[in-house]
Amino acid sequence: xxxxxxxxxxxxxxxxxxxxxxxxxxxxxxxxxxxxxxxxxxxxxxxxxxxxxxxxxxxxxxxxxxxxxxxxxxxxxxxxxxxxxxxxxxxxxxxxxxxxxxxxxxxxxxxxxxxxxxxxxxxxxxxxxxxxxxxxxxxxxxxxxxxxxxxxxxxxxxxxxxxxxxxxxxxxxxxxxxxxxxxxxxxxxxxxxxxxx
Length: 197
Fold this sequence. Notes:
Structural class: alpha+beta
Radius of gyration: 16 Å
Shape: globular
Strand order of the largest sheet: 1-4
């Protein structure tokens, strides 16, 4: 599994039913990937939440070497966007008190940020998987979803639909960030991705 920022459901499903999973920190950071992006939905459609990284478009290196550019107020913007998109969802008020503190803390490393959020999600959803973060991986290949070639259509029919906040206006969007499922379905949302794909 890749160590993505609030991963899409297609990636998060790799945790389901596992006792232990390895997450490599030595994988190359790729631009236009979910390492520093998450997709959520609002009243106006899909929104990319992008964590700015030092070096911007020219950044190179492994995931463990990527530093967050905290000169920008990205955490405030992300939290406002999340609150605007999910403030009226059934489970937002329940999970908000434990998620908000992450957006008030400064993280220097992208891998640390992603790891802390992944631990929070697993804990909140009651997924008892042990996450092993390694600087090198026994696998030389990584499955990589890029936001540049990401489409929702390939996931339609693969995911059992659930009620989304703006579904009546813009339809159902599968394979969004795991927080979409969490805020709309709560802890039982994991049932929607068991056996996904």
